[in-house]
Each structure stands twice: as C-alpha cells, then as structure tokens.
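Section 4.2 – Deliverable D4.2 (structural model, holo form)

The reporting period included a commitment to supply a predicted holo structure for the target in complex with adenosine-5'-[phenylalaninyl-phosphate]. Inputs used:
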Amino acid sequence: MSLKDDLKDIRDQGLDDINKSTDLKSLNNIRVHLLGKKGPITSALRGIKELPVEKRPEVGSYANEIRDDLTKAIVEQRDNLANAQLNKRLAAEKIDVSLPGRSVPQGQPHVIQQIIDEVVDLFLGMGYQVLTGPEVETDHYNFEMMNLPKDHPARDMQDTFYITNEILMRTQTSPMQARTLEKHDFSKGPLKMISPGIVYRRDTDDPTHSHQFHQVEGLVIDKHITMADLKGTLLTMAHQIFGDKFNVRLRPSYFPFTEPSVEVDITCFNCMGKGCDVCKHTGWIEVLGAGMVHPNVLNMAGVDSKQYGGFAFGLGPDRFAMLKYGVDDIRDFYLDDVRFLNQFSKRGI
Ligand code: FA5
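Output (structure tokens):
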C-alpha cells in the first residue's frame, strides 16, 4: 500500500472516530491522538523522505489536506457536542413560570401586639412620644410616686409578685408617669406620651383576668388641659380601634393618682348599645381607667401643680382585643395555638 493510501485510511478512520465521539472529553483525546507528535499523520509523514523527490510535494500537500480535513471535522463535532450539551442542560433546568409557587408560611405580630401597634400609630400621629420602662419596678415608682403610700388600702387591688420588699413586678404602666414627669423639661413644651408594656398582678386567672397582661399608659400635661380634652382623645381612640359607630362614656371612679377619676366604657360591640348578656344589659363595656392627674403626683415629681395639669389613662390591649374580635376568654391569647391566632391574620393565612 502506498503512503497516500495509508494517509487516506488515517483520514477515514479519523473522521469515523470523530463523528462517533459522544462527549467533548473523548473528542479531545481523539484530537490529541490524530494530530499530536506521536500521531499517525506525523509518523506517516516521516515516510515521505523514503519517496522519490518528485513525489514528495504531492504526498506532502495531501498530508496537509488530510490534517485540515480532520481539524475541520474536530471543530464541527466540538460545536455539535457543545450545543447538544447546552440543549440538554436547558431542557433539564427549564422553569415552568406558569406553575404556582410554593407558599412559605409567614409569621405575624400577635393579635395583642396588633392592637398595641394600632394604638401607638394613632398617638404617634397626634404628636405623642412613645416610651417604655422597666417591668421590674421599685415600690417607690409603682406605688409611692403614684400617691399610694405604704399601707394605702388601694394597694390591695394591685397585689403583685415581689422580688424584695422594695422591688416588684410592676402592676401598672402608671409608674412611667412619674419617671417621665421627673425628666420632662416644660420650658420646651407640653408633655404628651404613651407607654406600652407588660404588667403583673396577683390576680387569679379567669376569662377576663390574667396574672400577666398588657397596658398602654397615656399622659398629657400642659397648662389649661381639661376633661373635655381627655374625652375627645378617648373618643378618637375608640373610633380608630373599634369604628365610628362606637361611643365612649365616662363613669365616676377612684384611682389614687387621678382626681377626678373615671372608668371609661365604650358601646358594647355585641349589641351596639341595645343591651345584651355580654354587657350585662347596660349597652356599655369598661375598657380603661383615666382621670385628671392628681396634684400630689405632679408635685412629688417636681412639677408645679398650680401651673400645670392634665390627664392620664391606662388601657388594657388584651381587653381591647377581646372586645374587637369577640373573644370570650383572655387566656386564649396566651396559649400560642396558631389555629386560634391565625384567625386574626391581616394576610389571611
Ligand atoms: C390601672 O391599672 C390604672 N393604672 C389605670 C389608670 C391610668 C387610671 C392612668 C387613671 C390614670 P385598672 O386596674 O383598672 O387601672 O387597669 C386598667 C385596665 O387594665 C383595665 O381597664 C383592664 O383593661 C386591664 N386589666 C386590669 N387587670 C387586668 C387583668 N388581670 N387581666 C387583663 N387585663 C386587666
């Protein structure tokens, strides 16, 4: 067989191998084998020097032609394989954008926190500052500064958990009144604050009482504040939280730190004032305590009660939530049953 025939066989076999290769790695091995220094073309070319001189150019150029054919076939096959690989990947990673997404369960603020947020939002809008204070409080701020000296009988209504004789779990957010009054600089303007937080009492748990619950304290002190301001403020709040159809009623009451003092009722959510079992046939439901700040509270905190006065209130968001959503047992809020809590989802989960 002539050298030219050898080269032709190399080409035919080479093209066959190239076309049969199924991946880029084996194609590269074929390329190295065919075109490399130790490959069949190189060794065939070594035989050229054995040929007569006049034959050499023809065989030489034939060998180059074969090398070009093989190189071209390798490039083409490489493109084919690369395309096939890409198409396979595209098919495997195809995303069907019309498929519905997998929903991830999302948390939400607790229903009582939702009520607190609504109250805070409203008062922020009316220019109040929002302050928080310690839950572990001193007897001094929780009682004495609120005009409840030691042995005052009204302390009985707010028995609590004591850490020492002088340190206790606060029974109300009212100590924040004294703490804020002591710090406020009235030359810079009136004092308007609300203070949400957790309070504790040695109350026996029942459908409307918990030993740990929430309060939001409100305090406004300036010159010429009247009870009409208090009523207007509470009416605005009732409308915001419960809706426009609700009214508020102030009923005389007693707190040592306000004078006069009132219990605040709002229209019964269940009968809208007609009278039903929920409101004990009065048409009203009690939601908070309030009043005009007692001069003793102002004076003890270093504020001149002859010049300044104002109102304070303390509301229970737990009771607000019960009223707003018709929940008849306060303890349901603390059981952490998501089936119960999801009923109050704003996202509808
Ligand atoms: C007070 O705690 C006063 N500090 C409120 C106040 C502030 C009056 C400023 C005047 C001026 P009272 O004990 O009524 O008041 O509690 C206020 C509200 O907290 C109640 O109307 C009720 O909504 C809620 N509350 C009281 N005890 C409990 C309890 N054990 N569980 C759940 N909520 C309660």
